[in-house]
Amino acid sequence: MKGSYLFTSESVSEGHPDKVCDHISDTILDLFLHADPQSRVAVEALATTNRIILSGEVRGPETITPLHMQNAAREAVREIGYAQKGFHWQWAQIDVLVHAQSDDIAQGVDARDNKDEGAGDQGIMFGYACNETPELMPAPLTLSHRILHAITEARRSGALPLLGPDGKSQVTLEYAGGKPVRAHNIVVSHQHSEKIDCEEVREIVRPFVLKALPDESWMCSEENFYVNPTGRFVIGGPDGDTGVTGRKIIVDTYGGAAPHGGGAFSGKDPTKVDRSAAYAARYLAKNVVAAELAERCTIQLAYAIGVSYPLAVYLDFHGTGQADEAKVSKVLQELVPLNPRRIREYLALNRPIYAKTSAYGHFGREPGLDGSFSWEKTDIAGELKKAFGG
What we know:
Blueprint (H helix, E strand, L loop, with lengths): L4 E8 L4 H19 L4 E9 L2 E9 L6 H15 L2 E2 L2 E2 L4 E8 L2 H7 L13 E8 L8 H19 L5 E14 L2 E14 L5 H15 L12 E3 L15 E2 L4 H4 L20 H18 L5 E8 L8 E5 L8 H11 L4 H7 L34 H7 L3
Parallel strand pairs: 3-6, 9-10
Antiparallel strand pairs: 1-8, 2-3, 2-11, 4-5, 7-12, 8-9, 12-13
Helix pairs in contact: 1-2, 4-5
């Protein structure tokens, strides 16, 4: 990856139909974790024209009823800003088809007979970090997120009354010597009022694009700046396209710059290693890059349902390492326990911190005072440096 090439990543706004469903699912997860940190939750949502369907399985306080889940879903949609004829937070029909967690799954996850808790499912999870941005994330994805997040904040403040909640962005960067140098093309598609046309939308979003870039010299040529290429984007959100939880897994992670194990995050409590182990893998990879042991780091973890330790741990520095990968792997596993229960304890994941993860990426975010994004800390980078003579 040292040559000259183009690389592209996309993002979607919180009002994208799939992200609406992710936000609903994570809001319901937080509802259960707030009532009982040991709740087991796997809730998915489907949203279409004035209709939301909740399904999945839970094990938690009986005080949380279907009505509570309905109200949580409405509040999630209201926060995003949908009060449109075809999708309204107050009037949409909400069906709750959530049932109790299977006993067969529960017996594999629970601790019993001196056996530690097992993983909530089998699978492979990946973590990644690189030194392209201060967040140690791939630059095309970071810029794509920045554009939409800035537009959303302005829209929520009331500064952009002619834009709706739904939007997508896509950034293609030129790389020279393996480093990003400028934007080759930028695409922004954003829902808007029928009172304005495509050219007006173009000028509304332009300053947010420019602000997202490292400096204005990174801006692509005018002919490569695409805004609402279809010419109109008035009907948006679940009224324009059905949404489902868990369909934006590349947006949620590394924008295609790293492998993905295939498991979605939203709506799953942290006993599900799809979520917690992916967070742990990102934490380890980020600390490796922060410790300057590599410019790029990919980590793979593998688990089996009911088994209380990882089946395999794999590291790849992509030829940029300053230390042996096998030795770094050994030190990482000594510093951070990777069995499911200890991951949850180490990163303090049994808290209602997930609604804010549902849009603009689960990685590259600032750790919060409420314990959110704890996997973004670089607090073991110093120990890693010391272990390898730094």
